[in-house]
Amino acid sequence: MKIIHTDEITKHIKEMCIEANLQLTPDMEKAIKGALEDEKSKLGKQILKQLEENMEIAKKENIPICQDTGMTIVFFKLGQEVRLEGIPLEEAINEGIRQGYQEGFLRKSVVGDPLLRENTKDNTPGIIHYEIIPGDDIEIIVAPKGFGSENMSRIYMLKPADGTEGVKNAVLETVKMAGPNACPPIVVGVGIGGSFEKAAYLSKKALTRNMNEQSSIEHIKNLEEELLEEINTLGIGPGGLGGKNTALGVKIETYPTHIAGLPVAVNICCHVNRHISRRI
Amino acid sequence: MDRYIKVPLTEDVTQELQAGDYVYITGFIYTARDAAHKRLYECIEKGERIPLNLENNVIYYLGPTPERTGQIIGSAGPTTSSRMDKYTPLLLEEGLKGMIGKGKRSPEVISSIIKNKSVYFAAVGGAGALLSKKIKYSKIVAYEDLGTEAIRELYVEDFPVIVIIDSQGNNLYETAVEDYLNTTK
Lengths: 280, 185
Known about the structure:
The complex is a heterodimer of chains A (280) and B (185).
Chain A: E1 2-5, H1 6-22, H2 26-38, H3 42-61, E2 71-79, E3 82-85, H4 89-103, E4 127-133, E5 138-145, H5 147-150, E6 154-158, H6 163-178, E7 186-194, H7 196-206, H8 218-231, E8 247-257, E9 262-269, E10 276-279
Parallel strand pairs in A: 1-3, 2-4, 7-8
Antiparallel strand pairs in A: 2-5, 5-10, 6-9, 7-9
Chain B: E1 2-6, H1 11-14, E2 22-31, H2 34-45, E3 58-60, H3 88-93, E4 98-101, H4 107-115, E5 119-122, H5 128-132, E6 135-142, E7 151-165, H6 172-184
Parallel strand pairs in B: 1-2, 2-3, 3-4, 4-5
Antiparallel strand pairs in B: 2-7, 5-7, 6-7
């Protein structure tokens, strides 16, 4: 049994919100630089050069990489042998977001009521996904998600007969519809299986994977590779202005599903695919 | 080709610009995004005066991050333009000559761009830190209560954009992807 005070969680969330928005993870940076090296389109190359320069300025001058510092998505894995002390966990997490967005000079983009649309002025509440894990550790991922790409995401309730081909068509259709709107080059998170909401959750979780990490399931890994290749023959390219690098990666997560269904969610993320993790 | 232009943007300038041109804009422009557009639109519809002069001006679809002490503005990249499509034709009728954003526009907006001899530019999405360096002055001029969505007056110097839809209706998003695909055949 480990005792963790929720003040500590607030502090970590605050720091993670700031850090995630100022600097991409090394694997994301490397993916963008790699795209610059192998891009064939002249316009595409110029766009990627600007993105590279942008990352440097953000880091050096403490300016967020993108002005859309996102809605804060938190994946919170709680070891079942941890005892929490202090204020309720959800309040502690939201307090961390509140402090991070204030102290980090990040944009407050959350409106309280989706129809009345009044800004909450502190970017809370975040979207929190809890998971209980064995042991006495806490693992936190903070992923600020911009809505330029979020708005271009789709969910499909396919038939079992649609199979792998159906999944591919769904992903390609979503990427084509997004076109230049989602700030390509993009990262594509795909959730296959489960239920309506589980597929959407999986597609978001897939985006938090390291860019170099492929699926551990052989046929899913192959599907990731095939989809990346097919997306990159669409020609949409950086900024949607033509080129090879429409997507930097495709990440797929799966879950068992019902005999009658094949849910597929496609969560698109721009090249500013922010996710930072810590273990307490 | 590379072009250096100044705002106010007159029709003789917008008519010279071609889809695919690299344009560096200097001058005073306004920011406005979703909530500000809704207010401007409703104001005009009711016949009320709007708090800015759109004549020959340019709107940048931007909601910046807050500036730190000593900074003029925070991160300042473009937001997705299509969310403004419902409001754009009316603003173009009111004299607006240019828009800076990213992403596709509706057929209604494209028709209105042609009719009003205006132009749609894109800045690079997700390059907010880089683009903020081209902004030399920023002041909220209307709808302060909207926070990041308030209307700001900016002075930009050589602000880098690309002409996506020109006053003849040529659309770079369509032609550039086609051109690229043709070269890889």
